[in-house]
Design brief:
Helices cover 39% and strands 19% of the residues. The longest helix is centred in the last third of the chain and has 30 residues. The chain is of the alpha/beta class.
């Protein structure tokens, strides 16, 4: 039996080496069933066992020879080296430290994204459908998803080639290469972009069981959420829907008793005509029963909501703010704000500027019931005042009158929260145009070219709604956009880089080699 196997011994050894090599390659490729890898390892062991059985003397001679003794030292050193490397890899995986040395921290997730993934209550899995020819796009998506997974063990991801596994792609209804499906239980959300904003929004959507609904009042000349014109709120509505809010309109004249059961926040955006007493009564009842409302009132308008707001701690002044110190590019009627209070709505807005075209000032009401304390969110400069002579405003010649006008700083926004089983929350702005399409698309001329104004207006509005809707985990600085950075060099610098890399370094290597040869000659 052994003599017969001896003729096949070399083949047994070859099979053992081949199957172990295959197991190693499959392990490095990843996404392989453990059973397959174990089976290959076992087959290799059996093949080598047969070789040892067939040629025991050859194995003994090889192990006891002088070459084997010397070689054993090398084997021990190799094993120790591999063990050290393995220990370093294990410690690196267990105690992971990361440093982002880019100037704009482009490789680091924004605080909002980190908080969203850390606040996950249930596991969320991202399934990225990329073909193997996806190249750079696949690599970027994997790097981004790995960053999210680093911050929470409740977020996992895997990649699937839709061409290699079309049945899975069909199950998830994937028709486009580069689709990422986010899954929590039976809820799914797709995104076709691998940028941070798209991934974070998809995680927010799939992690929520219901959509918070915003109802914007209509019938009094308010800004419309589906209006794409300069005075519309179309951009705002699209932005809120992208982060899983549902945006609806409501005419309070058509409400019989109570507001819709699915309302999360009531938004009153710059009415031009007064609310009727019955409508005011419905808003009052809604707030007294733990409602949430965002109310934005412009100057020189009477809305019928003034007494209601006063009862909740906010008094609306009948003036127009003039701020010659911090006016928008010298326009005193458009105050610019860059300092904020410590309230949840604005505490993350450090370093961001907001501007308010034509605003009225607010102050704390003195007749509000106990427990309804209003907190100012931000104010104008000390050089501002509230102009009450509207003729001067019309003639573009405002002058501070200490007898009738209020000297700044002037409060522009307030937040009110009343404790209870269902706490009431209210945010009031003395301006409604800071979030219109025209304002968000405002442009200035710099060096003869039109540039879009960068401001925190949109973030201020979103943060206000997040706080009102009870989604404080979303109140953060939004994910940053990557910048293209260029290295500009003079002609002399370009020449130095070229010749130093093309000539000087190779020449230095040749000189060192020649010196070594000369000394050993």
């Amino acid at each position: 039996m052994r003599e017969r196997l001896e003729n096949w011994a070399s083949y047994f050894a070859a099979v053992g080496v081949a199957v172990w090599a295959a197991a190693g390659i499959l392990f490095l490729l990843g996404n392989q069933p453990n059973e397959r890898l174990i089976a290959l390892v076992v087959i290799g062991i059996l093949a080598f066992a047969l070789y040892i059985y067939a040629r025991p003397q050859a194995v003994k001679d090889a192990l006891t020879s002088r070459g084997a003794r010397y070689g054993s030292n090398s084997v021990v050193v190799s094993i120790v080296f591999i063990a050290i490397v393995g220990l370093i890899a294990y410690l690196g995986e267990r105690y992971n430290q990361r440093w982002d040395t880019t100037a704009d921290k482009s490789n680091t997730l924004a605080p909002l994204s980190v908080k969203v993934v850390q606040d996950l209550k249930e596991p969320v899995q991202a399934i990225a459908f990329y073909t193997l020819t996806g190249g750079l796009n696949r690599s970027e998506a994997e790097d981004r998803l790995k960053e999210y997974a680093h911050f929470s063990d409740k977020f996992t991801y895997k990649f699937i080639d839709p061409q290699a596994e079309p049945q899975i792609a069909q199950e998830y209804k994937v028709q486009m290469d580069g689709t990422i499906v986010f899954e929590r239980g039976k809820r799914r959300e797709n995104t076709f972009q691998a940028d941070e904003q798209s991934i974070t929004n998809a995680i927010v959507k799939v992690a929520q069981d219901t959509q918070p609904t915003l109802y914007l009042t209509t019938g009094h000349g308010e800004h419309a959420p589906r209006d794409s014109g300069e005075n519309g709120y179309g951009m705002m509505a699209s932005a809120m829907e992208s982060i899983n809010y549902k945006v609806e309109v409501i005419n309070l004249k058509t409400v019989t008793e109570t507001l819709p059961a699915d309302i999360k926040v009531l938004v009153i955006a710059g009415p031009r005509q007064p609310f009727e007493p019955e409508e005011v009564a419905r808003v009052k009842t809604y707030l007294e029963n733990g409602g949430r409302a965002l109310i934005m009132l412009d100057p020189q308008t009477t809305t019928g909501l003034e007494d209601l707001l006063s009862a909740w701690g906010v008094q609306v002044r009948n003036d127009v703010i003039v701020d010659p110190k911090f006016g928008f590019y010298g326009q005193a009627y458009i105050p610019v704000v860059s300092a904020y209070g410590n309230h949840e709505v604005v505490k993350e807005m450090v370093g961001l500027g907001t501007f308010f075209p034509s605003a009225r000032s607010l102050t704390r009401a003195t007749n509000a019931p106990a427990g309804r304390s209003a907190i100012a969110l931000f104010s104008t400069s000390d050089a501002s005042w509230g102009e009450t002579d509207f003729e001067q405003i019309k003639n573009q010649k405002p002058q501070l009158d200490v007898n009738t006008d209020v000297k700044g700083p002037l409060d522009l926004a307030y937040a009110v929260e009343v404790a209870g089983e269902k706490p009431t929350r209210l945010v009031v702005f003395g301006n409604s145009t800071f979030i219109t399409n025209g304002t968000l698309n405002a442009r200035i001329t710099v060096g003869g070219q039109q540039q879009r104004v960068q401001s925190g207006n949109g973030l201020l509005f979103e943060n206000s709604l997040h706080w009102l809707a009870g989604q404080e985990n979303l109140i953060q600085i939004p994910p940053k956009q990557s910048e293209a950075r260029q290295l500009l060099m003079t002609t002399e610098q370009q020449s130095f880089v070229f010749w130093s890399s093309f000539l000087l370094i190779p020449l230095a290597i040749l000189i060192v080699g020649a010196l070594v040869w000369w000394r050993r000659r």
